[in-house]
Amino acid sequence: MRMEDLANFLLRPDIDLCFTLHPNQLAKPGFTPPSEWSYWWNWAADISPNQSNSKWFLLWRYLISGYGDSRKLCKVEETVAFESIPAQLRSMIDSARNMSLPRKQISITPLKSGTIPGMSPKKSHEVQHMTTYISTLLSDPRNKRIRHVVDIGAGQAYLSRALRDDLGLHVLALDWSEVQSKGAARRENLKKSASKKISHTLAESKGSLTYQTTNITSSTALIQSIDSWIERYSEEVQDVNEETEIPILFVALHACGSLTLDIIRALTASLHSDSLPKRPWTPQAAVIVGCCYNLLREDDCTLQALKVPKIRLTPNHLQLAAQTPTEWDNNIRETTLSIRKVAWRALLEGILTKGYYSRENKDHVDDDDQTTSPPQHKRLGRLNDAVYEDWSRFLEISEEKLTGQKRDTGDGVTAQLDRVMESRLEVFHTIRCFLGPVVESLILLDRVRWIRNSLEGTGMKAELVNLFDQGSGSGRNVAVVITSD
């Protein structure tokens, strides 16, 4: 898939408006739907009593069925339902599905199975599969000299300990949070108490683990941390060949925001460095899984490699890039609740705008679109899931939270649920979620192209690997893998 095609698709007027506008804006009085949305706006308003499912649910069924691409045969009644979806909307969903990168996990049998004590099933899955993949990577003759790993953003160091204990590697676990580092150290002490057989000195062949708290906000900070670690290692291990650079493997399991880019910058800067004296180490490979696109620094929101057409990722793009609609069937009740939350909170925004709550300062519901949120407005915040089971109850609790006053029965807001606008909001949010994987695909393709350009002349290559199973809850399942060419 060409990046330019993805960018042009996202810049299409009807699709671009899905990122420009936020659901809260649609329910405000006086909102005029863009003419570009005419093909779905009126269709979404048809909430006839004989309708068996919500319009958003029908769109989701269409997405996962692959019906538009004739990949699957559908039941007659489902085919009829799909054909009721406007052709232009079906075409858009087909394009979004086909333009998104495939996410099927690579075939890999983990070294260990089952949930690791102290970890969630999701975390266990990720640590086991990443450790196994790294084991396979190191079995390549070109990587057989790698015995040192830098785990960036190590958190509680689950992966770091697995790399040490299962693969016998020397690991530097870096994290910016002192709380995380101390938590990792506590887990280490518990592990030592449970088993006296594991040795942790640098000279032991079983490997080692060094914790370090550092604020890695630049490639320079990361390089300096590795420099000091390798220097200490060289002092403790007498048989280090000073004439041979120590090969380093960079790993990151969910490198948040700009950390992924900082790691790549550090790696490529080291490869292109002409500094004297020469460093005693060199990057040999990397396995990096990024996440939290919404935490990207502002200067990293412009795509690194794509210059034409120009596209800048807004907060809405970055928030939606984390959506995995093809996996909604793993917990459809939770998905239904999430979509209802978006719709009802948007409807509440419209009620507030009409002035149902009389306050000196107008109260305001959360709006993720930072470019349109009015300043100095009180935010509704998080509500218990049970509040969303009944519209009247939702209004009552919302009023209490926003005004700070508990009303007597019958004295609160009594606005009726606008079923038509609710359906439109549900469809709108569902469309936005379908576009999320296209955004993430563009981000991933941009990163790998940028890395390949940066690696020119180094004898190294970069590729994307579907390391985890998204069905396990690991939505960010793609690793950027850098190895010798």
**What is the β-strand count?**
7
Largest sheet: 7 strands, mixed
* Number of structurally distinct domains: 2
What's the helix-strand series?
A: HHHHHHHHEHEHEHEHEHHHHEE
Features:
7-stranded mixed sheet; 485 residues; alpha/beta; 2 domains; Rossmann fold
Please give a quick description of this structure.
The chain is of the alpha/beta class and 485 residues long.
Describe the structure.
This protein is of the alpha/beta class. It has 2 domains: 1-103 and 308-448, no CATH class; 121-291 and 455-484, Rossmann fold, CATH 3.40.50. Helices cover 44% and strands 11% of the residues. It has 16 helices and 7 strands. It has a 7-stranded mixed beta sheet, with helices on both faces. The longest helix has 36 residues, at 419-454. It is elongated, with a radius of gyration of 26 Å.
Topology:
Elements: H1 3-10, H2 13-20, H3 23-26, H4 38-44, H5 55-65, H6 76-83, H7 87-99, H8 121-138, E1 148-152, H9 158-167, E2 170-175, H10 178-194, E3 208-213, H11 219-236, E4 246-256, H12 259-271, E5 281-291, H13 315-320, H14 332-353, H15 391-403, H16 419-454, E6 460-466, E7 478-484
Parallel strand pairs: 1-2, 1-4, 2-3, 4-5
Antiparallel strand pairs: 5-7, 6-7
Helix pairs in contact: 1-16, 4-16, 5-16, 7-16, 8-9, 11-12, 14-16
